[in-house]
Amino acid sequence: MSAINLLQELLKASEKAANIARVCRQNQRLFSLLIQEKEKDESNLRFDHDFKTLADCLIQEMIKHDIGKRFPELRDNIRGEENAKFTNTAGDTVMVTVTDDPTNTVEVLEKLLHGDKDAVTALVDEVYRDIELDMESLELPTDAIPLDNDWSELGVWIDPIDGTAEYIKGEEKLTKFPNIAAAGLKCCTVLIGVYETCHGTPILGVINQPFAEQLDDQDDGNRGKYSSKIYWGLSVGDLKFNNIAPHEPDARIAILSPSEQSKYIDFIRNQLKYDVIYSSGAGYKILKIATGEAELFLLSKGTTYKWDTCAPQAILRSMNGDLFNLQDTLINKSVKKISYQDRKVTRNMGGLIAYQNIDKLREFLKL
Q1: Catalytic residue among 126, 162, 166, 260, which?
Q2: 253-365 domain in CATH 3.40.190.80?
Q3: pLDDT digits (tens, 9 = 90+) for 54-90
């Protein structure tokens, strides 16, 4: 078993996901048809209205199909945020499926899109497209990295589009630090994380930003005027690899949710002397800790889920950082890492705190 083979397939799947996200976003008429409010039992408690799009459902099912086909023993352990059932604006409900036979996907999409063959063709082309990535530019290790686990002993968490609200609104807002967005498409990420089912430890993560860079006066076919930025991290035993260059931040930056409690904001700003900024998307915020563009991520509420955190936590671990349960860390003074061992627990109760530098976490605890 080679971790690099799995990583390569996850990278390809993430870029195919990014293409689907761009296709759905590029066609405004298509996009307006494909937004559905989630049922109460599948919505995020933090939002009054929580939406999913056909892009979310289609991406999730595509990743399940592609990874499951390449690694059949993994298939039953691949899970994601979305329910595959989707209802369009006309009230038509279907189960979004991706199989080896494209005609099945065509039939599903034609029902949802009222027989709009051009839109269906654009989406199906992306779902079944062979993705070619420049693996050299993604800085993959040249040596084989064996995994001690059987494929059946690994689990996968997918967030097909983290930051769906930002994906829908698309209103770009920057913070005072130009490399950190406050809101908008830059905060949207495709998250694919792999963990050991026995110990619940994330070992491999891929984060794809579908709208990372806007292309100058170019249109990449139906996929729109954007290109991806892809990050990955691998942590197997003592072996740690990633494609993130060291970065010295311009200031001591804490990145928080706009809805964070004032007592935490005041403590971080006044006691810890951080420059506090606000941003959207849990995956995006934790990514900024991994890239070194921010030093501290804190979320006091239990409003994130395993699909939000598995991939970015794996990347943090590849840099000797980690993601911790905030309440356990504060109240019990026990540094408890976020774990994926219990399949029944999908929410990160107790909030989160992330550091790339564990010494900084110790400083935090002393205060």
Answers
A1: 162
A2: yes
A3: 888 999 999 999 999 999 999 999 999 888 888 776 7
**253-276 residue pLDDT tens:** 999 999 999 999 999 999 999 999
- In this structure, is the dihedral angle defined by the CA atoms of residues 135, 140, 142 and 147, taken in order, positive or negative? negative
Distance CA(266)–CA(18), nearest Å, equals 37
In the residue annotation, 164 being an active-site residue is answered as yes
What is the pTM (predicted TM-score) of this model? 0.92
Active site residue 66: no
Domain ranges of the chain: 3-133+151-242, 253-365
Q: Which residues contact residue 347 at a Cβ distance below 8 angstroms, ignoring those fewer than 6 apart?
A: 302, 304, 305, 306
338 is catalytic: no
Residue the block writes with tokens 């296709």: 23
Catalytic: 250? no
Known binding residues for Mg(2+) = 81, 159, 161-162, 308
Classified by CATH at the fold level, domain 3-133+151-242 comes out as Fructose-1,6-Bisphosphatase; Chain A, domain 1 (3.30.540)
56 is catalytic: yes
Separation of alpha carbons 367 and 18, rounded Å: 41
308 is a catalytic site residue: yes
The C-alpha atoms of residue 86 and residue 53 are separated, in whole angstroms, by 8
Give the active site residue among 53, 164, 189, 291. 164
Which residue in the list 253, 308, 329, 353 is annotated as catalytic? 308
- Name the nearest CA neighbour of 365 among 300, 276, 258, 272: 272
Cβ within 8 Å of residue 247, ≥6 positions away: 291, 292, 293
159 an active-site residue?
yes
